[in-house]
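FAQ: What does the model actually see?

It sees only this:
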Amino acid sequence: MEGKAGLVTGAASGIGRATAVRAAAEGASVLVSDLESARAGGEETVAIIRAAGGTAEFQVCDVAQPADHDALVAGVLDRWGSLGFAHNNAGVGGGGKRLADIADEEFDRVIAINLRGVFLGMKRQITAMLAGGGGSIVNTASNAGLRGVRRLSPYTAAKHGLVGLTKNAAVEYAEDLIRVNAVAPGTIMTGFARGATPERLAEIMKPQALQRIGEPEEVAAAVVWLLSDDASFVTGVTLPVDAGSVAGW
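And it is asked to produce this:
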């Protein structure tokens, strides 16, 4: 990652923060982004990177807004001259209802952020990478994008769509030296898992062969590898980082 510049969305906490920190530790310049409401967390991510001797800045980005993506890519180009990598990580959860009970507006909201938001970002990122001679993109999908999950229809639909979008972009832009991959995390120790009861955590871990909850840094290790030149022969892949839950499905 030495000498590369790029962006990470949803980087105020969790997987996004861990990716930004690791990428910077490996020599990248990182534009950390998240919602205005998460500014404090985003600026904390930047402070962590700078304290370790890395290079990072924060910029607000609501991934549902095309203009914010325009500004985010321009922010990387203005600061560092080229866009070498992007991690499209921002997203929302939701769930708890069967399909017929889900409000139309809720379905639209999840698709707008988790699928359309990534499309909006990739469109602009790829344009910048074409001008710069190539690059690497990693999208955060989910193991819910590789199987069915009860009472999680909007999220599952969005993540399945994201897996398809990743594959299609990889095929379309391989000749331009732009690699596009995804990671499919299982249950990771972020806000949801931290707030779960021991009984709920035990239930969550049942399908995970390693029988534990993952850490954001474990997903970030996979993301940064895919972003880096070490994965130069890898494109169009959705890599499960899920303690073996998809393997045992």
